[in-house]
């Protein structure tokens, strides 16, 4: 269906240039959603995958340039082993089962996070999906897996340090751009809109450097309940904001 015919009314009222180009989402509340339905926590994660599909497809349809999803934090390894095992299983399955949807939607997938610690079979399937989608030209889907904002900065500092020791870079030449180029997100624009589901008012170590001027939108809805209408509501609210970047006008 051509976008102009199917664009929801709430969004049609917002000029396109006021839409966010990059949306980042902290997909939280899977466990709480499941517990409220008397289901095991893992059932919430399973249902969360359906929300990922809905959201990626809608972003692709709307022509959102980038979608960054917080799938697993560097702190989530503290959870009980059976939950971790299930999350790894889901990630592997997602990479295999969603490949067709990813290709049909022209999504270009990239992983951001530390590879060490992620099981080999998950990385293998992830790499296949990344490789297969590498020439797609639609929405960029950045999956934050084993991601921590602080460890990302540590890794960037180590790599900048190595360049300085090798004499390739002078300390005085280090700028904000140098740091940005050494982060996992090198080459990607910063998020415009940061969405968090399930109501917590915190960042939980997500994209610490990149969200310095992102607009934050929090919903009480848990991630398994996130749907197209919730995404539209976030976009409409974002479009009303006056981003000043420290200046006086938007
Ligand atoms: C988010 O849901 C998914 C991951 C962190 C992997 P949670 O599992 O954190 O759900 P709650 O916050 O406990 O409800
Ligand atoms: C953030 O959610 C991580 C992901 C959504 C992957 P958490 O559930 O881990 O965050 P906290 O522990 O409530 O801060
Ligand atoms: Mg949580």
TrEMBL record:
One of its GO terms (biological process) is polyprenol biosynthetic process. The active site is at 28, 76 (proton acceptor). Its EC number is 2.5.1.-. Binds 2 magnesium ions per subunit. Mg(2+) binds at residues 28, 215. Catalyzes the condensation of isopentenyl diphosphate (IPP) with allylic pyrophosphates generating different type of terpenoids. Homodimer. Belongs to the UPP synthase family. NCBIfam families: PRK14830.1, uppS. This is Isoprenyl transferase.
